[in-house]
Amino acid sequence: MGKLVLEHDLIEKEADDVYYVTGFFHVSFNDGKKLDRRFSTRMEKVNGKW
């Protein structure tokens, strides 16, 4: 497999149950290769669950 590390850069509240999250992810593969990228996502609470 490998290893995934997430680090958030910004968590912005859009509403009581909606957040916009951006950050970086870093993947280290067992063969020594690495991948570093940015991500952004909208998190929304639905039926009381994230």
Summed up:
The protein has 50 residues and is an all-beta fold. It has strands at 2-15, 18-29, 34-44.
Structure notes:
This protein is mainly beta. Helices cover 0% and strands 74% of the residues. Strands 1-2-3 form a three-stranded antiparallel beta sheet, with no helix packed on it. Strand 2 (18-29) and strand 3 form a beta hairpin. The two termini are 27 Å apart.
Number of strands: 3
Question: N-to-C SSE series?
Answer: EEE
Reading side by side through the largest sheet, how are the strands ordered? 1-2-3
The SS-based structural class is mainly beta
The coarse overall form would be elongated
Largest sheet: 3 strands, antiparallel
What percentage of the residues does DSSP assign to strands (E)?
over 45%
Helix and strand arrangement:
Layout: E1 2-15, E2 18-29, E3 34-44
Antiparallel strand pairs: 1-2, 2-3
Relevant terms:
mainly beta; 50 residues; single chain; elongated
